[in-house]
Amino acid sequence: MKTFSFVGGRVVPGIETKNDARFGPIVFLGEEGRGRQFEKIGLDRHDPADVIEGRVLECVPKTIPIASPRPGGPDKFPVLGKSGGKPDDQRILVRVNTCGCYTKNTSGSWRVIRGDPLVLVKGYGAEGLAGRCGSWDDGLIVMSPGDILHVKRHGGYKTPPHALVCGPNGLEAVDWADYEQLSQVEGAANTAEAI
Description:
By secondary structure, the protein is mostly beta strands.
C-alpha cells in the first residue's frame, strides 16, 4: 500500500519517521503533554516496512495484541509491515496532520465527505498549558479510490480548508472552494444529462 502525508496544506509522498532510542524508526503522531495525545507507531519486528531516507513509502498496516493491556486502554497497537498485500489493492495509507498555525481558539480536524475511510490511530496536539487555546488532529487513515475528506487545519482564516481526494493514482489536495465549484459543475452536468 502506498503512503502519503498531508502536512502543511500539501500532499507529500511517504510518511516521515523519527528515531526512538528504544524502538528505532517510529511514526510519531500528536504531542506529549497535558491536553494532548501522543501516539507511536512502530515497524513490525518480523517484517518491517522499508524506511528510505527517513520515510516509509510503502507498507501494510497491521495490529499486534498487547500482552498486558491497561484497564480501559487498547488491547492492540498498530505497526507498519513490509508491503506484500494484494497487487491489485488500490488503497493508500495517509497521515493527515491538521496542525496549521497558532491562532487562539481554533481547531484542526477532518470529516468524511464520501466513502468509508478507516482511521487506524489518532493523536492530537494543542496550544496553551492544558490545551485550551486550540487543538489539531494527527492520524493515520486508510483511504480507497473515491474516498474524500474535508480537512481544516487549525489557524482559522489563515489556513483555508482542503478536500483530500483519493484517486486511482494516489492522493490529491484541492482547495475546498475549488472542490465545491467542481462539485456544483458536476451536479449541474448530471442534472442536464438526466433531462
